[in-house]
Specification:
alpha/beta; single chain; eight-stranded mixed β-sheet; six-stranded mixed β-sheet; 14 strands
């Protein structure tokens, strides 16, 4: 039996990739800049070897890391969450998902109106979700027209007040947009329902009732193949939403990093009780959603400290033969002018509770693709999976 746990620290990149200038991200370094400006205290991540994979102001390298340490490079076209997670799942995108920095073209809006029967839309531009709701919430309540908007990501977002467009009706609008409008050359990565409540000047988005309608992958990601071979697959956080909910036996929705950490430990305990081969894939979203996109390095640093504080509980919950990976899906440097994701390498910390890395074996180097993540999962769980990655699974004897 085997347990593989992978935790994605959403947006926690470790330095610009060589192709970052093509994405407008030259000089981005999420973790490096946050450590330099906010000096977070991360003793547990330091002992795993975080300071060994990149130069970090407050996280020094250690002579004997407890984890195997490296970085991974994204090769897919794009820097959004869907692209990053798809590559982590063993897929690759040669062409990026479509984006709409100037709003959606007339043919997309017309198709949306024809398919849904709406009398019109408001917004139709790239915008902050909280800002556009405050700007157009009053007009939306007067006219009943949904607010549509996008971002730097490949998303078609529909915001609606729950008293104007009930939640189920909003989900139906998104489902229609996903199936009939956002197709072909306009097949965005995600259609997102953004419900909100309140009155003028006091509108609040209801994050727990957000729903993502993702584009389905063209080929099977690793969790689909694991599932087909009898491995129990668990999504914690938004992971399942990024794959149109394909390939997961259990999906646990979360509202915060703390919630995601708690749910991960709970699912580890389920494995201990059932002893069935299991893959748990967790996304901790606060780094990206609450702090990266808000250009809040102080909040980002505090979130890193909170995760560091929780690490001993996560590790102590693991059975001795488990495998734990801590990584990311892209960068989101809160110290730059941009509020967008950044094209960065991502950290790779690979822990085996029953093994202390030998002095000559802890360095996993620079992995040429996120696909190595999926290849390792399939290797550990002994499932055949065709991907372009190479496993970094450790087979050496116990040391220390």
């Amino acid at each position: 039996m085997a347990l593989f746990v992978s935790i994605v620290l959403d947006g926690v990149g470790v330095g610009a990739q060589p192709d970052a200038p093509a994405y407008g991200d030259a000089g981005s370094n999420t973790l490096g800049h946050v450590c330099a400006s906010e000096q977070p205290d991360l003793p547990n991540l330091q002992q795993l070897g975080l300071g060994n994979l990149a130069q970090l102001a407050t996280v020094s390298p250690v002579s004997e890391p407890k984890a195997y340490v490296g970085r991974m490079r994204e090769v897919s076209a794009g820097k959004d969450s869907t692209t990053g997670h798809w590559e982590l799942a063993g897929l690759r995108l040669d062409e990026p998902f479509p984006t709409y920095p100037d709003g959606f073209p007339e043919d997309v809006v017309t198709a949306f109106l024809d398919a849904t029967g709406c009398s019109g839309v408001l917004g139709n531009r790239a915008a902050s979700g909280t800002q556009i709701v405050h700007e157009l919430g009053g007009e939306h309540r007067r006219t009943g027209k949904p607010i549509i908007y996008t971002s730097a990501d490949s998303v078609f977002q529909i915001a609606a007040h729950k008293d104007v467009i009930p939640l189920d009706d909003l989900y139906d609008l998104c489902r229609t947009a996903r199936e009939e409008v956002c197709v072909g050359k306009h097949a965005v990565g995600r259609v997102i329902a953004r419900p909100f409540v309140g009155t003028d000047g006091k509108y609040t988005r209801i994050s727990e009732e957000r729903r993502d309608f993702a584009r389905r992958p063209d080929s099977a990601p690793v969790q689909d193949v694991l599932q087909q071979h009898g491995v129990r697959t668990v999504s914690v956080g938004k992971i399942a939403d990024l794959f149109a909910r394909t390939g997961f036996d259990t999906s646990v929705k979360t509202t915060s990093n703390a919630d995601g950490i708690e749910a991960t430990i709970e699912q580890i305990n389920v494995y201990r009780e059932d002893v069935q081969p299991t893959f748990i894939w967790t996304n901790l979203i606060d780094f990206d959603q609450e702090y990266g996109h808000r250009n809040n390095p102080a909040g980002f640093a505090r979130a890193l400290e909170a995760f560091d504080d929780a690490l001993p509980d996560i590790i102590s919950a693991l059975p001795s033969d488990a495998h734990l990976v801590i990584t990311a899906d892209h960068g989101n440097d809160p110290t730059t002018e941009s509020t967008d994701h950044s094209r960065e390498f991502v950290p790779l910390l690979y822990l085996r509770p029953d093994r202390t890395p030998a002095a000559s074996a802890w360095d996993l180097g620079l992995r040429p693709s996120f696909n190595d993540h999926a290849a390792t999962i399939a290797d550990v769980l002994d499932v055949p999976f065709d991907t372009q990655g190479a496993s970094f699974a450790v087979t050496e004897s116990v040391t220390g």
